[in-house]
Each structure stands twice: as C-alpha cells, then as structure tokens.
Amino acid sequence: MTKPCLLASAAAFAAAFAAPLPAATYQSEAVANGGKISGVVKLAGTAPSVPPIKTTKNQDYCGATLANPLYVVGKGGGLANVEVFIKDISRGKAKPTEPITLVNEHCMFHPRVQGACVGQQVKISSADPILHNTHPQIADTNATLYNLALPFKGFSVVKPLATQAGVLRIKCDVHEWMRAWILEFDHPYFATTDADGKFEIGDVPPGTYTVVAWHEVMGEKTGNATVSPGKAAASDFQFTPK
Ligand SMILES: [Cu+2]
Fold first, then answer.
1. 133 C-alpha vs ligand 1 centroid, how far in Å?
2. What angle do CA 218, 221, 226 make, to 5 degrees?
3. Same domain, yes or no: 113 and 175
4. Residue 207 maps to which CATH number?
5. pTM for this entry
6. Domain range enclosing 39
7. How many angstroms does the Cα of residue 57 sit away from the middle of ligand 1?
8. Contacts (Cβ under 8 Å, ≥6 apart) of 29
9. I want to staple 68 with a disulfide (CB 3.0 to 4.6 A). Which of 11, 50, 97, 173 is the partner?
10. How much distance in Å is there from the Cα of 115 to the middle of ligand 1?
C-alpha cells in the first residue's frame, strides 16, 4: 500500500466519523398547489384488556379508579391518540405559533397525545381543585424540563417546550398515573388521530413522503404517501398489539 493511499483512507475515515451536519433548517413558504395526506389508524383485533388505573391519592375527588387510556378504540377499530407525521420535510406551510394546551382535568392530562413545533409554547392549566405538578421530561434521556406546581382550579401558565425535536413525556409528581405525550417536530406536518382513528395533514407540497405513525405503547409504523396537487393521498396504518 502506498503512502498517498494510506492518506486517502485516513481522510475517508475522518470524514465518515466527522460530526454530523446540523439538520437542514425548515423553510416556510406559500404552498399554492398542496394536497393532503389523510387516513385511518387501526388496531388489529381486539384491544388488549388493560385494568383501570387505581388511584392512590385524592380519591375523594379522583375516585378509586380511572379508565386507562392506553388503547382508545373507536368506530371500525380506529385508534385514537396516535401521532402521525411526515418524516424529513424541509419546506412548506408556516409553523403554528399559538401555544398548545395541556389541561389537568379530573386527575388526568388532556390531551393524552399531541404534536407541536419546536419553538411553540404550552399553556398548562388546571380544572381541578387539588394540587397537580406538571413535570415534562425528554423521553430519550429522562432530562427534566421543569417541575410546575398547579395549586388551584383555574391556575394556568404558559411555558416553553424542549428546544429540540423529539418526544416529551409529561408526568404529574403528585399523581403517578397521570401521563401525556408531546411530540415535537422541526416542521408543521403532523396530526393526532381522533376518536375514530382518523387524521389529516393539510397543505402538503406535492411529492413522495415517508409517513410515520407513533403510539405510546406500540411504537412506530412507517408508510409512504405520494401527494398530488389538490388531491388527498391515503395513508392508513395498522397496529398489532404486542
Ligand atoms: Cu396530578
């Protein structure tokens, strides 16, 4: 092996292990000829039987048990609380700027699952006459964003989300059964399935995309959708309980 060749492979090695380039910044632009991606997320077969949540605190207000929202199945097997999003889209409609909302109500968080853009804020509020404590963590690292006490009914405050895309797990330190999920994206192309498992992502520039459906227990499913101007591209998903 000659010296120049050695040098060349050293350079190739260095390039391969160099720090990854920062992700391309999302660019907002008018989407005049957009289409949409819509579909249904279904659960195959019957939902696993999950026992109700047994409360351990404030039972006089919360009750002894609460319905467990892990598998919320509606019409035709449609699965609620699934976040569906386009993977790696770098330009398109403007990102939302209004804060999203997270309500502590009857000893649960509402909504259970939602999406947001990096840079959006969250309005956290309580509809309960008991103390809650909202505690968001980055799911990958368990890093705490903040611990926020919500001492009385009607209390509300606007707080930031994480500064990077990813999954936020929200806990209440007073009521350990309380859980919510916020999926943060660098772009605005995401939607949460409704009670019948339906979703719709609008103003998508024409093109072929990877579409991902995320569920808190069953993980991710990936599909493809080709969007034509003014048309709806179907993208359905099916989860099989583990
Ligand atoms: Cu609580």
1. 6
2. 155
3. yes
4. 2.60.40.1120
5. 0.89
6. 31-81+191-242
7. 9
8. 91, 92
9. 50
10. 21
